[in-house]
Amino acid sequence: MEVTFGEYIKQRRSELGYPLRKVASHIDIDQSTLGKVEKNERSLSLEHFENLCEILQTDKKTLLNYHYSTKIVDELKEYPEYKEVLNIVNEQLAYQIQRQESFKFLQDWREKEFSNPNATIKIGTMFSGIGAIEYAFQRLNLKTKIQFASDIDNFAKQSYFANYDIKEENWYNDVCNIDGKKYKGKLDVLVGGSPCQSFSMVGKRKGFDDTRGTLFYEFARVVKESQPNVFIFENVKGILNHDNGNTFETIKATFDELGYKYFYQVLNAKNYGMPQHRERIFVVGFKDNSVDFQFPEGITLEYKMQDFLEDYIDSKYYLKEKGVKFVTSSKNRTKRYTQINGEICTLPKGKSAI
């Protein structure tokens, strides 16, 4: 390990130009103690980590990784044959990596044919926006029948109605008003991604304490009532580590109670044809518990962000002063929430591309 926990703290502090006393004061320990922590002569209690993450402008996962890796190495050094242990660990890691890399589909998923291409897929969507999943079905030349859709934004509704054939009676402005029982046995696929601001790394991360976070339970309720053959739940990657992982454990427990067999994985748009760094977790659930699902492999990116940008743009499309400050702020650039002049677009986590 090239950098220890203490060295990482000192490195971040130096990058930010903070004196030892400023960081020590922020995490409520004396200056000499922090100096010993940086020299790896003292350990730091986990209760100080939240404030340390804040002052060093780093995420808790990174800090914990350095903390535990340093701790493990220190403990191993007490064992005279620790190098042999490390060799065994490396062999195990190499084996696991080889197993992951050897997993390949027998056929490129883009070239596969549908077993029943003429079937009409009955879909329902929550938090529908302007209808992304509906358009995905269209691109695949699959027939669909929209059973219902929903969104609180009236402009999204206008766009949706302009794009798709849907009756007013099948649109819901509030997902809380969806009567899932009405659609029981009438849904092949239910798709929804509840508001992500309460779980986003950029937001205040109140999670289920935020009323937007509790809308996840509305999605679960509609799954329970309508019993779709398949559901797809999507959200920001930050939901995985929110509240030390307890939030996602609650979500999994909820899906367990529904009786669905589900699979989840973080996917990045840049690995599936879009020059945009956009990491989202997808949970795909099946009513049929015998299903063995595999997420598609990533594909080579053929286009860069510049390929989609026009040379001359009306000034009304440029960010206002507030937006420019957000994108260029040291906090967001340090944490790589935003990126400037890259070949792949990086949006603030939780922000939409539209």
Give the gist of this structure:
The protein has 354 residues and is an alpha/beta fold. The protein has twelve helices and nine strands.
Q: Could you name the key traits of this structure?
A:
37% helix, single chain, 12 helices, disordered C terminus, globular, alpha/beta, two-stranded parallel ribbon
What share of the residues lie within helices? 25-40%
Order of helices and strands: HHHHHHEHEHEEHEHEEEHHE
Oligomer: single chain
Structural class assignment: alpha/beta
Largest sheet: 7 strands, mixed
Overall pLDDT score: 83
Radius of gyration: 24 Å
Unreliable residue runs: 197-213, 348-354
Strand content of the residues, in percent?
5-15%
Q: Given the structure, what is the number of helices?
A: 12
Q: Any idea what the shape is?
A: globular
- Total beta strand runs: 9
Task: Report, as a whole number of angstroms, the end-to-end distance.
Answer: 42 Å
Question: Can you list the strand order of the major beta sheet?
Answer: 3-2-1-4-5-8-6
